[in-house]
Structure formats: structure tokens, C-alpha cells
Amino acid sequence: MRRFLASLLVILSLAGAMIAPSVVFSIPAAAACSDAPILGITPWYRGLQEQKKDGACVIKSPGSGKGDLSKFITTIVLNVLQAGFGIAAYVAAFFIIKGGFTYMLSAGSSDGMSDAKKTITNAIIGLIIVLLAAAIINTIASIL
Fold first, then answer.
1. Rg, C-alpha atoms of the chain
2. Which tens digit of pLDDT belongs to each residue from 45-66?
3. Helix (H) or strand (E) holding 57
């Protein structure tokens, strides 16, 4: 039964991917230096871009003043950490869904149900930790 459901899910996913239209969007010139998150994941260069007169978008070099290099490096580190937390949140959501499927497919088995409950509990605890850590990183990043 599990193999049937898994193969049905794969077939439906592939069929949906083939049926869905592929659309290519061009990026407007005003959005060339956008540092907006992609799927909720912060880019490492957030807050470090500048747009030149010819429309090109480049990463600002750290200034020559005292503390400029450390602020530049700190900004990159905070952005990478925040991106990592976003990825960890997606992983936690995956494990919550996996635990739910395991619970449904346990067919009343007490071992299967307890394993699924542990998976969901651990994923929720991990998600709470990730959200708190992301809030702390956002607070530190807004101060800089």
C-alpha cells in the first residue's frame, strides 16, 4: 500500500510538472539591486548592494574607516546565519509533515504512532528554537 501511494504521488507530481506552463519573467531594471528574500531565505548580500549610474548592481566594498571591515563581515555572517535559520525552518516543517504521514500510515500500531508523535514533537521544538534564533538575529541585524 505504501509503495502504491508513493508511486502515485511521484506520478502526480511529475504529471503536474509537465502540465504546468513554464513562464520566464524578466527582472525590471528598478529591481536589479533587490535584496528581497527568496522563499523566505535571506540572501547573503542583504544590505551590501549599491546601484551604479549605468544600472549595474555591485557589492559595496567596506570603507577605509575604523570598524568598517568588521561591520561588513558581521553583516555577511548575520545574513548567512539568517539564511541557515530559514532553511532549518523548512526542514522542521518537512519533519512535521513526515510525522503526520507516519502517524496516518501507522495503522494503529502503538510503536509507529509513538515514533510519529516523537518526530512531530521534536520538529515543533526545533521550529520554536529556529524562530527564536531568527528573531534574535533580526534584532541584531536591525541594530547594525
1. 22
2. 888 888 778 777 888 888 777 7
3. strand 57-59
